Amino acid sequence: MGQDDLLSSTALELARAIRDKQVSPLEALEASLARVDELNPELNAVIWRDDDEARAAAREAGEKIARSAPDELPPFHGVPIPVKDLTPVAGWPLTYGSNGAPGGVSDRSELVVEAFRRAGFVLACRTNTPEFGAIPATENLRYGITRNPRVIERTPGGSSGGAGAAVASGMFSVAHGNDGGGSIRIPASCCGLVGLKPSRGRVPASVISWGGMAVEGVLTKDVADAAAILDVISGPEATQWYNAAPPSRPFLSEVGTDPGHLRVGLVEDAPLGMPLDAQCRAAAEEAASALENLGHEVIPVSGLFPMEMIGPFLNVVNAALAAYEGIDWAKTEPHTQAARAAASEVDSLAYVASMQELQRTSRDLVGRFVDGPGRLDVLVSPTLTIPPPLAGQVLAEVHSSAGGGAPPMSVFQMAALTSPFNVTGQPAISLPTHTGADGAPIGVQFVAGPWGESLLIRLASQLEGQMMLAGV
User: Fold this and answer.
1) Which of the residues in the chain have pLDDT under 70?
2) 159 is a catalytic site residue
């Protein structure tokens, strides 16, 4: 298996080649590290690495192959994967993209990291994130600006933009990410990737983050990888407070399965009265047309997103800064300090009221996917209301607006169509169906009802087979 094949393969393809001994885990890792050496000076996707540790893990994986039958190996044995700089890995530094982060290393790994290891992945390095993952573009003062491999002048999105750039550039076949307001789907859209946000409680976590709105996942090149990796990282997990309803069979088995005749809602407007960029609107309309050609019923919908969500959502997100320990807040960025100041104005009673308001306002939105008049099986929208902004633009805007109250409009424009489904806890996926005028990818988001990943994967794989997706 040549280096070009290694770097263009999906995670499932690479795992199969390793299992068949066409390539060793160490060779796969070395190909990824060589691509990082080549491209990272321009892209700034990877911000920390310990090549000796990664190579030792890859050699150990190779030794296990020598003494094991292929069917005894875990599904992604020997496949390298980077971990986002918001998630603890035992023995690795964790900086949250911030100059205010404490030194030292983590003493334990987050549950999703342990799941990656059980699945056979080789942990390779850390990817960049905005400070504390709070904005939808991967830009910070500690490590700098991450750029989009598809159009270098633009952002890869965020907060998992380092992960998105790492996969879109061919550094890795898959990368870890997490999503509290769109942070997997936004970079998937910007970079031409598949980004699946699982349901609330689907992937076990040591604590409920952002009031249960933040979830763990990956960015991938195709739907099959997204499904197969969800199989290995999902629960249930007995000690977790909340677990999503389990699927009836593995998610990977849904790839290529007929989803049946579906009622699909096509979003025609965005929250706050924001316009939809013509290219983004066209992407969603083209996807809807493809769905109609596949026999699904498409129904235009508007006025779907309750404005009452916005204030409580910001209260919960800002208050989440209290979970970080050992931070020198004086060294954090202006927008973080402003968010922390805003959180200090929200007392415990107001926080509880915000959580209750989010639960109340989300009921009507989720109710559209439950039996009754006007019921929808799936919702389709652009992932973003605008194409990917220029690299550095969002960071400059949030710094200049810090202290002024609400985030700048660019933040709302990028997250307006994704964040409502973090509140409701519904699964959602961004697919790379469209390319803009300057070559920047424009993704389309599909949302299913509660615990509906199986349906999303069926529909996404059907669309993947129907359309020439615009991804890598």
Assistant:
1) 403-405, 468-472
2) yes
